[in-house]
């Protein structure tokens, strides 16, 4: 479904991605793990077209989207739940979800909202609460819910576990598995929480200073001594 071929991304003189090749197949959960500054967020942002790749190609179902504008990427069926969540703080939970349904034209709003509430009952309980007053974990649920409202074919998740209480992290990872299984949605998940991410991923890549240094099945990498030593210490 999605292919990155030898993608390079630069911020001025800094080369954040130094020739990254990654593939995501239809129906998979693929995870990218790696430490701080490895280039994980840059990879997702490059797929979304901002910043654009300086070299290499990004293909979505065979179509070259390397130079496609971010607005058009959403309309091609790629939706991102960004790092830091970026929900609308002054808007209610429901209004945030309405914003998410704009790319899909709001046509299936009721049906899609009910799906989000089934996935995250906590959001239903807080339907009229302002986004800014939700807990970190609830904001993450809202961020994922909002991304789902666009009816994507490919969902990009940037560190959904960041700064969240362990019990909510579990709920969020369970929800990711459920979205993948029930809705058949393809998911690319970027995570520092390598243990949780590898547990649910069909396949995984390890990114280190802008390069893929290892790839394999999620379970395979979970059992790999090098991965364990570098990313799973204490995990
Ligand atoms: P983290 O988990 O800390 O977010 P990451 O793996 O997502 O890390 P990126 O945020 O993609 O890493 O950063 C990759 C590299 O690019 C880092 O060296 C970072 O300092 C640099 N970088 C990221 N954004 C910018 C920017 N806007 N301008 C300049 N350099 C940047």
TrEMBL record:
Coiled coil: none annotated. The keyword RNA-binding does not apply. InterPro entries: AAA+_ATPase, ABC_branched_ATPase_LivF/BraG, ABC_transporter-like_ATP-bd, ABC_transporter-like_CS, BCAA_Transport_ATP-bd_LivF, P-loop_NTPase. Residues 2-234 form the ABC transporter domain. CDD domains: ABC_TM1139_LivF_branched. Keywords: Amino-acid transport, ATP-binding, Nucleotide-binding, Transport. This is General L-amino acid ABC transporter ATP-binding protein. The lineage of its organism: Bacteria, Pseudomonadati, Pseudomonadota, Alphaproteobacteria, Geminicoccales.
